[in-house]
Amino acid sequence: MGQVLEVSNIHKAFGGIKAVNGVSFAVQEGEILGIIGPNGCGKSTLFNCILGQLEPSEGSVKLDGRDVTGMRPSDLNRLGVSRTFQLLQVFPELSVRENLILAGQEHEGTMLSRFFGRRDAGLSEKADTMIGFFKLGHLVDAKAGGLSYGQQKLLDAAMAFMAGPRLVLLDEPAGGVNLTMLGDLKERLRAINAEQGATFVVIEHNMDFVMSLCTRVVVLAEGKVLAEGTPAEVRANPQVVEAYLGH
Amino acid sequence: MTAPATHGAATERRGLALPSSIDGTLVTLVLGAAILWFAPAGMGRYGTYVLSLWLVMSIAVMGLNLTLGYAGLKSLAQAAFMGLGAYATALLTSKLGLNWYAAFAISGLLTFAVGLVLGFPALRVQAHYLAFVTLAFSTLIWLILRNEQWLTGGVFGLSNIPRPSFLSVKLDGALEFHRFVVVVTFILAAALWWMIRSPWGRAFMALRENPVRAASLGVDTRMYTLLAFAIGSAYAGFAGALYAPLVEFIDPSPFSLSQSFFLLLMVVAGGSGYLLGPFIGALLGVVLPEWLRVVGSLYLIVFATIVMLLLIACPQGVSGLIERGWAKLTGKAGGR
Amino acid sequence: MKMQWILATALSAALGLPALAQDKVKLVDVVELSGAGATAGTNWKNGIDLAVADINAKGGILGKQIEITHYDTQTNPGNTRAAVQRAIDEGTYAVLGPVFSGPIGASMQIAQRAEIAQFVGGEAANLTMQGNKYLFRTSLSQTAAMPKIAAYLKNTVKAGSVAVVWVNNDFGKGGRDAILPELEKAGIKVAVDVATEQGQADFAADAIKVKNSNADAIFVYLNEEESARFLRAAKQQGVTKPMVGETTLLGSKVIELAGEAANGVKGHVGLSIDAPIPAFQEFGKKFQAKYNYVSDHNGLKGYMAVYMIKWATEKQKTFDKKGVADTLRGATIKPSDEPGIMIETTIEQNGDLDRESFLAEVKDGKQVITATLPKIKP
Amino acid sequence: MAEFIAYLIAGIATGAIYALAAIGFTLVWQTSQTINFAQGEFVMLPAVLVLLAIKLFGAPIWLGALIGIAAFILIFGAGFKLAVVDPMIKHGVLPLAIATMALSIIMKEGAKDAFSAEAQNFPSFVPTQTISVFGASISLQHLAIIIVAFAVIGLLQWFVGGTRLGRQMQATAQNPTVARILGIPVERMVLLTFVINAALAVVASALISPIYLAKFSNGEVIGLFAFIAAIVGGFNQVRGALVGGLVVGIVDSMAAAYISTSYRLAVPLVLLVVIILLKPEGLMGRKEERRV
Question: What are the residue boundaries of the ABC transporter domain, all occurrences included (chain A) (predicted)?
Fold first, then answer.
């Protein structure tokens, strides 16, 4: 089992406020890693630093041993790192299928082939398969903006998987999703993890969701790593209980 | 009319996976070209000129529509790019005796390259810096056109710009040249239609709706943004290359900053992000003064007010209004 | 053809115009009513309207009433060209306008090709050098005016060096290009050559530059409000050398806007409602009464243009379009034959005009004519 | 040297005018992230409205001024915000920016058609005398503009930093969502900003018009230079307008003096491009982080 992602000593400050203050962790191939922590502990900022949306003030990010610190999000994505956002991020004016084709089209061919080639970039079937997998088959041609919140959340996740990524970072996938949908989502994620061997990092508030999905959990507090271990170990850690789980 | 096809019907038909499937927009383009081919009958030279001018402006607006409507960038230099194309064509054909077709291609290449050079540093920072840089560029170009009299004729302009010929047919007459403009406009519009339907078009739209998400899906936002701006600028260059022989005289005034603003307003009036919007926008901008002869110079106020009201009531412009009307008629849940 | 007829009828019916084309003569004025040329263009248009009203009230031309149409060019050469084409398509008897030299240059070949006389308000030298037999000026050209300025600078002002301040548009650039060789001929040195922008608001730096050049006199060739702004800035910077100008600088609008700063300005005036000719002053009063502001020389130009057409038509006794130009070339129109022409005017073969002009000075906020200059070829 | 000082002082005097006009850019930017392309017309119009009121109602100058100013602040301060900004801002800032272009045409052409195509004199509230500073002359009018520009910026800084209302306004500008949660009447704060912008435009108009004359097309030049000043100084800082205005004024004056006058206009534009390349946030601006 190789190491997919290695994050070392990431710092990020906004003005005088240190949002992330020296975070290090590693992600092993095939695992589902959870990152938890109270509001404002720097989870999203950490994500954005890893994914090139923000430039870290200090520290490095390595993908398969290669330094990708500060690399542009689009390039990182084409190396196989995919993500979802805390707030919903689908393209409302495009249909469900178009959303998925978009998520895959930049991973194949060249700019020229994308201009002169097929307009679906040969991805229609793959998109339909993915849509079926996420149980949105009846909505293939609907505009994404017209879907329910939970459906959009599923679409959002589906887009992250469209290009067959090595590593997927999910930012609060369970936020605002109702219980039935939540079950669906968890089941889908597990299935992809099992079938495609995809590796996950999940930021989540919903404790039950994280504890039942993840194989390992990193706890952040005030921009630093507070604890790390299996769900059971973390649950038993007194520091964590005090800082986060306690209330 | 046609607008629903660009978004609704076309999107839905994509599932058929027919790369060359014909949609409403293309049908409208073909029909429009056919009608315009015969339209000037009995209109006189002036009427024909206005029709041709409308099409030429439509090309420039089409380019800006790509920049603004599809990629969401504010360019304040579309008229300046048009000027570059017009002067390049005028100088190459009248002073160097170059063939118009070569001059046309050079005009497009030149404006495309300048667009890249201009866009690269600006888009590195933030999208709205493109507006600042193009504003400066627009005025600088205008100054050069005016000051370098040895080359551009300065304030006195360039006259006696020759019209092209097709095969061995001379296109000096108003009607012949109009038909030539119709054909060139059709080709350029069809090329844009193809691009918008290709994966590029999808990337452009993703860029406009949510650039951050698009980047996280592997869309090279900088590359596509630059391309949209450079291609949009090249269309202005093409428009300029037709404008010069159409008017047979150019001076710096139609390429000023305020003209660039005016072109932006045309994009919005017609419906930004709709392939056929530019034709409607340019119609309002170019032909409206003809319809509003009665009110004299008030036409500018009328035009600007129409744009304002559209922006308040329906930011998708006239195309958006038509789409809404269509949705109502067909009973579909339309509008946004 | 029939289609057009129906359209035209429908259109005129819709606009409430009487469609009695037979006893009317159609004139189209193509002019700058919006854009940079709006001020000059509006004066020109009002002058024309005044003339048309006068003529129609007295029975028209050869018994026909004049029907005047104005087309706005937006000060855009392309539009001007198209509008002239349109005027000819619609069968205008002659083309009036435009006023700015750039748009004239863009559109003059159209009227020439159609062999229809075009009466323009432009003063740029190059317009009448292209062998166009159908183009007629309504004022002195810059080539005619500038030698008079140079002579004035040399003989009256006794300047050895001159600062030239000009506006960088077709009007100003043309004037500057015309005066420089004349200054050289007169042995006057150009101390500093200052280009300014059309619509420029701030002239402080330009005034300092002129002041520092230590020129004996300053030749100012700007449009109306820029002239006023420059005069004010010059006064503020303590420029004391004489300001010399051509027509515009001594115009009523400049005097009104510049206030005290205009006092002492001198120069050459082609057309002016302040000229010591009763007809001019009367025109000024009529114009003021109708439009509630003071006409500049463009108002006079427009007014006289219509009378040039009237005179030519009555002379040839028929509405022959081509004949208008033929009749006018080389003719001399005297106010005794046609009072509307106001001042004896000779039309040269190339379309230039020759007439008396004036030297003037601004005293106590008023233009005072100090001398009358004879025609170049009396 | 005396020559240089003369140009410098002329540049500062002109720069203060640009600064006064540029403040509005920064205010509108801060509250709605929009470039107001009609800013130049905002400065042009009050003077025209005052003259129009005098002409239409035959009112004495003070009454004309009162009517014109009240009408302007009402229509283009409150009215602009309610009729243009409010309905449009939900569609994003792009339509709003374009709407201000349309607005500038309406204001300009409206002033021309309703008032006059020609420039008109505007009475000065300041004596027109000239005084001598270091051998260079400067008019009391320009001096007044410099003083007012500094005073207005100082007052705004104090208002924003030192008063409760001002801090609320500042909070709204920085993050409307958070401000709303904190119980700040966000809508009213934004409205207030626009009214302040209109009031400043009136002050600028009253000071500038006696020198530049009242004309419908004045907004083009003033707007362009104020825009450059705002970018050079920094769009997101009110004091950026002051610094930018002065820098642009001085650079323009020096360009007229020492560089080809036909390319004078190019110099501030090149400065603008250089600033964008080297310090995109402007001389005084705050760096805006890319946020997700």
Answer: 5-247
